[in-house]
Amino acid sequence: MTDRKLYRSRTVKMLGGVCGGLSNFFNIDVTLVRIIWVAAVFLGLGSGLIFYVLCWLIIPEEKPLVE
Predict the structure, then answer these.
(1) How far apart are CA 7 and CA 5, in angstroms?
(2) DSSP readout, 2-61?
(3) pLDDT the model gives residue 1
(4) 8 strand-pairing partners
(5) Which residues pair with 61 in a beta bridge?
(6) Are the C-beta atoms of residues 7 and 60 closer than 8 Å to each other?
(7) Using the 8-state DSSP alphabet, how is residue 67 labeled?
(8) Residue 25 has what pLDDT?
(9) Which residues, in sequence order, are CB contacts of 27 under 8 Å at separation 6+?
(10) CB neighbours of 53 closer than 8 A, spacing ≥ 6?
(11) pLDDT 10s digits, 15-58
(12) pTM above the 0.85 mark?
């Protein structure tokens, strides 16, 4: 079993990196995650936006790569 952890992306982000982090975690395209999130915002009457902000606050940002 792998030790995968969920982090907000530092590189693949538009706002807070939540969608980029989820796409990395589930190994799917970030565009698909963003489309699902936008649909959740409109179909859930804004509850998707509240959930996004909560994820932005709760999920830690990935550590920077040391060069």
Answers:
(1) 6
(2) ------B-SSS-SSSSHHHHHHHHHT--HHHHHHHHHHHHHHTTTHHHHHHHHHHHHSPB
(3) 57
(4) 61
(5) 8
(6) yes
(7) -
(8) 93
(9) none
(10) none
(11) 899 999 999 999 999 999 999 999 988 998 888 889 999 999 99
(12) no
